[in-house]
Amino acid sequence: MNKDNAQRKTVIDALLTNETINWQEVLSTVISAFDCTTGTIHFLDEKSGLLKVQAHQGIPPFLIPKLSEIPIGKGMAGIAAERREAVEMCNLQTDNSGVARPAAKETKVEGSIAAPMMLHGTLYGTLGIGKPVPYDFTKEEVSDLLTIGEKISAVISG
């Protein structure tokens, strides 16, 4: 996170202690904290085994149906969930690895990261953010994103 790191962590923590969590507000705060423009929060649906979108920002409307349910192992979020580790791309627009789905390029995002939301070894979902420019997230930023994912997991695990 940038220079307002501690302040933003405090804001995110406060949002997660509300009786009713506004996931859109949590996502917007995370996106802002990392100086990003787009993002998604997906929760793992135990019954279907799919990642289901809980909040999104900056995603073109025609892509919403494609990211509403994501199988484990598909796309950045699905691969982050499968590997149980953050998956990052410096420039999604020029990536040829096959990790990002072809439609992902329509977001116009370049630097992007998807992190698993885990607590005590259990997967609860994924948190993804992106920038409109090529970008490599620092180790500290990856660690902060994973920590936020743990905090979200603690809330949704009850």
From TrEMBL:
<dbReference type="InterPro" id="IPR003018">
    <property type="entry name" value="GAF"/>
</dbReference>
<dbReference type="InterPro" id="IPR029016">
    <property type="entry name" value="GAF-like_dom_sf"/>
</dbReference>
<protein>
    <submittedName>
        <fullName>GAF domain-containing protein</fullName>
    </submittedName>
</protein>
<dbReference type="Pfam" id="PF13185">
    <property type="entry name" value="GAF_2"/>
</dbReference>
<feature type="domain" description="GAF">
    <location>
        <begin position="24"/>
        <end position="156"/>
    </location>
</feature>
